[in-house]
Amino acid sequence: MIGIVLIQTVFGIGVGTQQSESHPSLSWQQCSKGGSCTSVSGSIVLDSNWRWTHIPDGTTNCYDGNEWSSDLCPDPTTCSNNCVLEGADYSGTYGISTSGSSAKLGFVTKGSYSTNIGSRVYLLGDESHYKIFDLKNKEFTFTVDDSNLECGLNGALYFVAMDEDGGASRFTLAKPGAKYGTGYCDAQCPHDIKFINGEANVQDWKPSDNDDNAGTGHYGACCTEMDIWEANKYATAYTPHICTENGEYRCEGKSCGDSSDDRYGGVCDKDGCDFNSWRLGNQSFWGPGLIIDTGKPVTVVTQFVTKDGTDSGALSEIRRKYVQGGKTIENTVVKISGIDEVDSITDEFCNQQKQAFGDTNDFEKKGGLSGLGKAFDYGVVLVLSLWDDHDVNMLWLDSVYPTNPAGKAGADRGPCATSSGDPKEVEDKYASASVTFSDIKFGPIDSTY
Predict the structure, then answer these.
(1) Which of 115, 125, 373, 441 has its CA 20 to 30 A from that of 38?
(2) CA pair distance 138, 446, nearest whole angstrom
C-alpha cells in the first residue's frame, strides 16, 4: 500500500485545478400578470456527487468506483480536509449540453477516463448561489421531450429545499458550495450522498452490490421535495413529499426512516401524494400516439394555488395543465372508486387516495399541503435529472408495484412489464437515451402559457 501524507491545513473540502468549472448557460423567463415575460440569463451546475474527488496536488482518488480511500478517508473530517471536488467537463464526461433555453441530459456517456451514468444539475441564480423559488400562488411551466426515454428511465424536474449557497455558510467544511453543486437533499433522505454538511459520508460506508459507482453511508440528507415531473414516454406522475424539518437536515438512525419498520417514523413522507393518470384510471392519456403524444415535446404547466389567492396564503391545491400542438389539454379526471372525480392534488384527494389504495397516510401526518407551503416559504431549488433505479427498477413509476399485489388497488402504475427496468439492461440497451428540458417560465397563475 502506498503511504500518503495526510494534509491537515485545508480545513474543509477544497476545489481542484485539473478542470476549470464553467457553468453551462440556460436562460429562462420571468413572467408577470397578463403574460408578459422577460428572459433571465441563468446557468446550471452539476451535483457534487458526480464529480471527481481527489487529493489537492495530484490525481490520487479519494473515492474510486464505489469505495473511499482508507488512507485518505479514515474519518469524515480528515477525508474532507484531504480531498477536493474537481471542475466538470459537462459535455465530454457527463453528456450535458445547453443551447439558449434548452438543456439536454444524456444517459450513458463514455469519457476519456470513465463511463458516466445519468446526471443531476441545479439552476443557479449566480455563480455561488442556487436560484431560489417560492412557488405559492405561482405557476411553473416548462417543455419536455421524453421521446427517447424507455421503461426504467426517469427524466425528472423537481424542487427541493436545499440551502441557497449549498451549505457553505452553515457548515465550515462545505466550502465549495453551490458553485460545485453541494448540499443536495430530498425526501428519500438519500444515504449515497458523498459529502453531507461538508463532511465525507464515510462512516459505515457500504459499496452497492449492483451499482459500480454508488454506496451508502451512515447519514442521509433529508428535505421537502416537490416532484413536478417524473416521467418516461410511458408513464408520468407529479408528487409532493413533505419533511418536518426546514431545509436540508442530516439524518441518522430512525429519523431517516430507512427500514420498513421506521419508514413512517422518519422526518420525511417518502411515499408522497402522487397524481399518476394511469394509476388513477386513465390508461389512454400519456404515451406514444395517445392524447398527449410522447413522441413529441409537450409543455407542462403546474399551478400552486393558495387558499386566499395571495402569495402568503396557505397552499391548498396543485393543478396541472398541458399544451401540445397549440392546444391546452386539461389534466385527467380520477376514475377510481372511493376518490372524487377530481383533476388536481388537494388534501382531500390525498386522504381519499390513501384510503382507497390502502396506503399509510404519512402525507397528512407530516402536514399536508400547508406543510409543503411552509417549505416553499423557506425557498426551494430547481433540479433537473436523468436516472435509472438500482433499487426497484423504476416499477413504482411505470409498471405494477408491488410486483405481487394480490389485487391491491393502486398497484398498477403504468404499462411497462414487471421484468423491465433492470439497470444493467437499461444502461446497455438504451445508452443513447436522453431527456431535453426547455422554455422554463415562472410567474403568476395563468401567465406562462
Answers:
(1) 373
(2) 9
Which is it for strands 286-287 and 292-293: parallel, antiparallel or unpaired? parallel
Q: Which residues are catalytic?
A: 225, 230
Q: Residue for cell digits 409537450?
A: 298
Q: Is residue 435 part of a domain?
A: yes
Question: How does pLDDT run across 111-123, given as a tens digit for each residue?
Answer: 888 899 999 999 9
| Block residue for cell numbers 417524473 | 230
What span, in angstroms and rounded, lies between the C-alpha atoms of 271 and 247? 19
Quote the pLDDT of residue 228.
Answer: 98
Residue 6 lies in a domain: no
What pLDDT score does 417 carry? Answer: 98
Residues 402, 411: contact at Cβ < 8 Å?
yes
- Contact call for residues 204 and 57 (beta carbons, < 8 A): no
- Identify which of 133, 114, 134, 111 has the alpha carbon closest to the alpha carbon of residue 122: 133
pTM recorded for the entire structure = 0.96
Classify residue 425 by its DSSP letter: H
- The residue among 284, 263, 281 whose CA lies nearest residue 272 is 263
The CATH number that applies at residue 158 is 2.70.100.10
Tell whether 392 is covered by a domain. yes
Range of the domain at 150: 21-48+90-444
